[in-house]
Every structure is written in structure tokens, then in C-alpha cells.
């Protein structure tokens, strides 16, 4: 990827002749335009009540933290069981190239016009208003469905210790904590206390099996290791925008340290640095083998195993959508966003590719404990492949600490999804595609009713009360995967329309703050891959003996809903397909450029924060 942000900063607002207007020209012709949605040289805009207070480090870690969660620590084990270590590694590596194509496509549009819920609104501006309507609601369903997914995952992870607490109690605790975070201005110290109490509670519950009374020091170490970032940096009172950024920053740091620690554990352990003195290396790639057979024998079975791993990768790997959703609340976005997209992609690619490799090194795909935890959701079974490996090697204490870290990661990921879902719904409301009352915000810039609506959807997590938690988890995985693939298809297709509009209207892409490489071919590649995978995701229900109504509905529901929303809105509002010469490349642009001209970077007085800014840019 290449970026022209430095050239942009040196030359000032770009001025390109464009059908009677100059991009960047100092005009206030849009000041009375009701579509005005961006910042105007301050932290607040007319029509958009969110605040620009998120810094580069916040954006990068929001993108990383929102993506690293249960999928990387727990659900990745399902891919290993289905396809084997080689299929898992190859599938994750291949899918990262698709995510690269999506990233450079959406990054170019968002850095050009960094507004709230950007790719949702761009779909309406560059393609069709009905397309934007369908895309917006699809993204909302995607993010909202991830909240109950993480809640269910919390219950599955806690099951490693004990099933003494009813699933309903765990669900209630998690949802109350999410509501507390978003509906009230908060102190991170109080939040850390809630997290620590949450962890300690379930640690004490399984005291009979773990002999808690004789291991108080170990329990304290578990809580401290899982929530140290919150406890250390929880002394300042924030408004919600910056408070969310700070809390997610340190939560994401914890996730990054956890995955790095697990990769280091893998390297040391595979070379014999474990209590069993077992130098196992790539043993499990030979026995039981590199490729698992799924449903059928020989080549067809191995191909289906690889395909299942590719589906797993399409669910697990994301990133550009989370970075994009924060564009409207980013400080100095045209400088910050290009670096954030680059940093998030390369760091996530490293974690996901190496993570898929590490899982296949540590655990054989036919491990009975892993199968019991991932596919059957049995209480007491380790759901994380890393925990399975540690228990097999006779490592004491560490499996409990890692499991607590995975629990914290799942909770934090759900926290990110509440944020993104509420912000996407807020963006829909600003565009008139959702009820107007959803635009109401608190004094801290929190879209109050949007958060409430997301938390109501999160009540779907109570489905696990009547079904196996692993089964319900898989339902949400199917729904989320389909929605996410549609999101990526929308981003790539919208970019293709943006690309053509720039060409037709004479806007030189070389003058943009960020210019993606290999375009438009990268966008075509991303669109074709994500579009095809959308229909492949639930293929297993069509195999002989595999038909399951809930699995079919969760896999293909959004494929039917998306065109229904598109056609319904098109008929209702009589929208028209946006011709390239009519695509709106201007609205909000003058305000963004005025913001950048008037922007003055406040000097950071805190030495530690200055250190962080140097690291993360």
C-alpha cells in the first residue's frame, strides 16, 4: 500500500478541477446543506453529535482489539478440527490477501471524506440510496450479532472452570456490564473493579476442583494478569468518546500481549521447553497429518476441510471496518487514518497467520479434549487450543491464566461490537434510514437509544439456555460470517463506483490523502472472493445427512434480507442508480478541509502519553 498523506500535508488542501468546482476550494456553499455531516474546525459538527477525540493509537488498537477476540483464541480450534493444520494455515494466509484488497479500497474513500459510518453512507452516495440502506442495516446486523456471540463465548470459556453458575446468570452479568460502560460516563478504575470482580467470582465458583482456598495467591495473579491494563490506567475520568478509546486501547494492548505470549509459548514449548520435556516440533503435521478429511474420504474430504478453514478465516479476519467506523470521531483523520489502516492490516495479518500456524503446531486436529470443548461445549473441557496444549504438557496454573485472558478478550471484543453497532445505527438515523429519535445523544456524545437497541438484540444470547452453547455459538458464527462477507462485498463494489466517478468527473486520485495500489483490480479481486464466499458459507447443510433448519437460516438469512431491503427501499423512496457523473464527491468535503486548516495539535503534557504517541504515531 502507498500513501500520499505527507504530500497532502505539504501542499495543503488539494485543488483539482472537477466539473465546475475545485476540490478544496474555500467556499461555504454547503453550510446550509442539510446533508452536512462532518466536522467544522472543531470537535463537533452540525447534524453529527459525535466528538473528534480519538488519536492514532486509539484507532489502531480499536481496529486490532475489535478483531482479536474469541475467534482467534477459541473458534480457530474448530477450523483445526475440520481441516487440519496445513489447511488452516493456508486458508488464513489466502484470506489475508482478500482483506488487503478490501482494506486499500475502503481506506482510499474514508481518508478522502472521514465521516461517521463512512462506507455505509458512501454506498448511498456512489451507488444507490437503496444500496446504502441495505448495506447499513446489514452492517448493523453483523455488529449486533457479534455481541451475543461474545456473550455466549464467555459462558463457554467459563465452563472450563465450572458449570456451577447458570448460563442465564453469566449472560445477565455481562450485559449489565456492557450497559454500565456505555450508558454512563465512567471511571476506568470502577470499570476495572467490575472486571476483576467478574473474573474473581467465577474463579471462586470452581473452588472445589481447583482448591481455591489453598491457591489465593494464584487467584490474585490470575486477576491481576488479566486486567492489569485497566487497573494501572484507570485513574482518569473521561467522556464516552475518549473514554471508549482509552479503555479499548488498553484492552487491546492486553490482547496483543496475550497473543504474543501464546506465540512465544508455542516456540519455546515445541522445542522442548515444557514440563514434559517433549520436543514435539511439527509432529502433529505428520501424525495425524497436515490435512484432515471432512465428510468424505481422500481428496474431496481434504478439499472440503480446506474450504471449511477458509470459511473460518472469513469469519475470523477483519479490521478495515472497525477502523472505518471510527473515522467520524478521529482527531486529524487525514493524517491518522492512512497510518492506522496500514498498521492494523499488517499487525493483524501477522497475528492471524502466525496464530493459525501455532494452533496446528500445539494440538492435533483429532484431540478429544478439543473436540469436546469446541464441538460439544462440554463443561470442564478446554475451549481454547492453547489451553488444551498446556494441560496436555502438564503446565500448572498457566492454563487458568490464559483462560482468564481469553475471557477478558471476549468481553472486550463484545465491548467493541456494542460501540460499532450503535455507531452504525446512529449513522443510519442521521441519513434518515432509521427512526429519527435514534440520533439523540447524551452530553458525552453517546447515541443513547442506539446503545439500548443493541443491548436488546444481545438478549438473543439467552438462546443458549435451551441449546448447547457450542451449537448456539456456531449459529451466530454463520450469521456473522454471511453479514461480514456482504459488508466486504459492499465496500469493494462501492469503491469501484467511486473509482469510476473520480475518473468521469476528473478527480485525480494522485491528489488524494491515500491512494491504494493495484486499483481497480484489487477491488475486483476482493469483490469476487467475498461475493462467492457469501454463498459458500453454509454449504454443509446441503450435504447428505447434514440438513439443519437453524443452520440454514443463520447461514443464508442475510443473503435474502439484503436484496429485500434494497428493493423495498427503492420502491418506497423511488431511488435511482447513481450515474458516475452525478456521484456526490463534494458534500461535506469543504467542512473536512476547513477542519484540517483550523486544526491545531494540542501538545501532550503527559510524558507517558508522549511515549505512546511516538510508538503508535
From TrEMBL:
Keywords: Amino-acid transport, Membrane, Transmembrane, Transmembrane helix, Transport
Main location as per UniProt: membrane
TM ranges: 59-76, 88-115, 136-161, 167-189, 250-273, 344-365, 400-420, 446-463, 475-499, 520-541, 553-572
Membrane topology: Multi-pass membrane protein
Any one Pfam family match given in the protein's UniProt record, by short name: AA_permease
Claim: Cell inner membrane is one of the keywords in the record: no
GO-annotated cellular components: membrane
Gene3D superfamilies linked to this entry: Amino acid/polyamine transporter I (1.20.1740.10)
GO MF annotation terms: amino acid transmembrane transporter activity
InterPro entries noted in UniProt: AA-permease/SLC12A_dom (IPR004841), Amino_acid_permease_CS (IPR004840), APC_YAT (IPR050524)
Name of this chain's protein: General amino acid permease AGP2
Species name: Pyrenophora seminiperda CCB06
Amino acid at each position: 500500500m502507498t500513501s500520499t498523506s505527507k504530500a497532502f500535508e505539504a501542499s495543503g488542501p488539494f485543488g483539482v478541477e472537477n466539473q465546475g468546482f475545485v476540490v478544496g476550494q474555500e467556499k461555504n456553499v454547503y453550510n446550509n446543506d442539510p446533508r452536512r455531516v462532518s466536522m467544522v474546525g472543531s470537535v463537533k459538527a452540525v447534524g453529527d453529535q459525535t466528538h473528534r477525540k480519538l488519536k492514532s493509537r486509539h484507532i489502531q488498537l480499536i481496529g486490532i482489539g475489535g478483531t482479536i477476540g474469541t475467534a482467534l483464541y477459541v473458534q480457530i480450534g474448530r477450523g483445526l478440527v475440520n481441516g487440519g493444520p496445513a489447511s488452516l494455515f493456508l486458508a488464513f494466509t489466502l484470506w489475508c490477501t482478500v482483506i488487503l484488497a478490501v482494506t486499500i479500497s475502503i481506506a482510499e474513500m474514508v481518508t478522502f471524506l472521514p465521516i461517521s459510518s463512512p462506507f455505509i453512507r458512501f454506498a448511498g452516495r456512489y451507488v444507490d440510496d437503496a444500496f446504502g440502506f441495505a448495506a447499513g442495516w446489514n452492517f448493523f446486523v453483523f455488529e449486533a450479532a457479534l455481541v451475543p456471540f461474545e456473550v455466549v463465548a464467555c459462558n463457554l470459556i467459563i465452563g472450563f472452570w465450572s458449570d456451577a453458575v447458570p448460563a442465564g446468570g453469566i449472560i445477565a452479568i455481562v450485559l449489565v456490564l456492557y450497559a454500565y460502560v456505555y450508558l454512563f460516563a465512567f471511571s476506568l478504575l470502577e470499570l476495572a473493579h467490575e472486571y476483576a470482580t467478574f473474573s474473581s467470582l467465577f474463579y471462586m465458583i470452581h473452588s472445589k476442583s481447583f482448591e481455591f482456598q489453598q491457591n489465593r495467591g494464584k487467584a490474585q495473579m490470575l486477576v491481576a494478569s488479566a486486567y492489569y491494563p485497566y487497573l494501572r490506567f484507570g485513574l482518569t475520568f473521561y467522556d464516552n468518546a475518549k473514554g471508549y478509546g482509552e479503555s479499548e486501547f488498553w484492552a487491546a494492548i492486553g490482547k496483543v500481549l496475550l497473543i504474543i505470549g501464546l506465540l512465544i509459548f508455542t516456540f519455546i514449548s515445541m522445542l522442548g521447553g515444557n514440563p514434559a520435556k517433549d520436543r514435539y516440533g511439527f509432529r502433529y503435521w505428520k501424525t495425524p497429518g497436515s490435512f484432515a478429511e471432512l465428510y468424505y474420504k481422500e481428496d474431496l474430504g481434504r478439499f472440503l476441510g480446506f474450504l471449511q478453514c477458509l470459511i473460518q478465516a472469513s469469519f475470523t479476519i477483519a479490521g478495515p471496518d472497525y477502523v472505518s467506523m471510527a473515522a467520524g470521531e478521529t482527531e486529524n483523520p487525514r493524517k491518522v487514518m492512512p497510518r492506522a489502516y496500514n498498521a492494523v492490516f499488517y499487525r493483524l495479518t501477522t497475528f492471524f497467520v502466525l496464530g493459525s500456524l501455532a494452533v496446528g503446531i500445539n494440538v492435533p486436529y483429532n484431540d478429544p479434549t478439543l473436540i469436546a470443548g469446541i464441538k460439544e461445549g462440554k463443561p470442564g473441557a478446554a475451549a481454547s487450543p492453547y489451553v488444551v496444549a498446556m494441560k496436555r504438557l502438564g503446565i500448572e496454573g498457566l492454563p487458568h491464566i490464559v483462560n482468564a485472558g481469553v475471557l477478558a478478550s471476549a468481553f472486550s471484543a463484545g465491548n467493541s461490537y456494542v460501540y460499532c453497532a450503535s455507531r452504525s445505527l446512529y449513522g443510519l438515523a442521521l441519513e434518515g434510514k432509521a427512526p429519527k429519535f435514534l440520533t439523540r445523544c447524551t452530553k458525552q456524545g453517546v447515541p443513547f437509544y442506539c446503545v439500548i437497541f443493541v443491548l436488546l438484540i444481545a438478549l438473543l444470547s439467552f438462546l443458549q439456555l435451551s441449546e448447547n452453547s457450542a451449537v448456539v455459538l456456531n449459529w451466530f458464527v454463520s450469521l456473522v460470517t454471511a453479514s461480514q462477507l456482504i459488508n466486504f462485498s459492499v465496500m469493494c463494489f462501492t469503491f469501484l463506483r467511486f473509482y469510476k466517478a473520480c475518473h468521469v468527473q476528473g478527480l485525480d486520485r494522485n491528489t488524494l490523502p491515500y491512494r491504494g495500489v493495484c486499483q481497480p483490480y484489487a477491488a475486483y479481486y476482493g469483490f469476487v472472493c467475498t461475493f462467492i464466499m457469501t454463498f459458500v458459507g453454509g454449504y454443509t447443510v446441503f450435504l447428505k445427512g447434514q440438513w439443519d433448519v437453524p443452520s440454514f437460516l443463520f447461514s443464508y438469512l442475510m443473503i435474502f434480507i439484503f436484496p429485500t431491503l434494497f428493493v423495498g427501499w427503492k420502491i418506497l423512496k423511488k431511488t435511482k442508480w447513481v450515474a458516475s457523473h452525478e456521484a456526490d464527491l463534494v458534500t461535506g468535503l469543504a467542512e473536512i478541509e476547513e477542519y484540517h486548516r483550523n486544526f491545531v495539535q494540542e501538545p501532550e503534557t503527559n510524558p507517558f502519553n508522549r511515549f505512546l504517541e511516538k510508538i503508535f504515531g
